[in-house]
Amino acid sequence: MQGLMIGIGVGIAPGMLTDEAKQAIKMADMITIPVEDKEKSRAYKLAESAIPELKDKQILMLDFKMERDNKLESENHLQLYKVIKEYIKQGKNVAFLTIGDPAIYSTFSYMMDKAKTDGICCKMISGVSAVSACAGRLGIPLSCGNEMIHIIPGIENLKEVLDYPGTKVIMKCGKNIAKVKQILKDYEERNLKSGIKIAIYAVSECGMIDEACYEGISNIPDDAGYMTTIIVKKAD
């Protein structure tokens, strides 16, 4: 009988792994992580901190390359999927660990799309995402009433997206923080001229030992880490 593909969100920090996720990891025949060295996998380390016996499971380590060339990236994903598929065909239930929630910009989504096309049964187990976790650390609501929330995965078209109504969440922007800060400064000044005050927050390494929270553009350091999330909304 064919196995199952399960995408498991492990949250973004120790202590965020849900009971459902723990149970699914324990019951899985094989654990997949999207790097070649499990010791460099944040998702694996977070799961291991909650489930010590994870180290005794069969771990499938795959190199998900982030290519600028979409064709090369797609070819890489296809080759990795074929590896996972072979184990599923053998009847193994394969759990794919992902940071945060598998439904939000996760590598698992690429595998799930291919698996569904092949008629493989897939399941997703939600985890605490950076979007909600960072808002929690800051003690602010992401939205109230009928406010919209826009999740932005990078800085491409950021100037245009900032003009969307509601709250904007800019994820993993640490590598381009200086450019992001300048765009945000221009956006803030433009709104002030129209009498609208903008609140800008940032969280770096949310939930980790070196976590840092900031309010205001000038307080966000230029060397903020890769795992930095910025939240932009109208000031109360």
Word description of this protein:
There is one protein chain. The protein has helices at residues 19-27, 42-50, 70-89, 108-117, 130-138, 158-161, 177-193; strands spanning 5-9, 30-33, 58-61, 94-98, 122-125, 149-152, 167-170, 198-204, 212-215, 228-234. The protein is α/β, with parallel strands linked by helices. The strands form 2 sheets. The protein has a 5-stranded parallel beta sheet with strand order 3-2-4-1-5, sandwiched between helices. A hairpin with a 7-residue loop joins strand 8 (198-204) and strand 9 (212-215). Helix 3 packs across helix 4. The radius of gyration is 19 Å and the shape is elongated. The N and C termini lie far apart (57 Å). The model has no long low-confidence stretch (mean pLDDT 90).
Question: Could you give a short description of this structure?
Answer:
This protein has helices spanning 19-27, 42-50, 70-89, 108-117, 130-138, 158-161, 177-193, and strands spanning 5-9, 30-33, 58-61, 94-98, 122-125, 149-152, 167-170, 198-204, 212-215, 228-234.
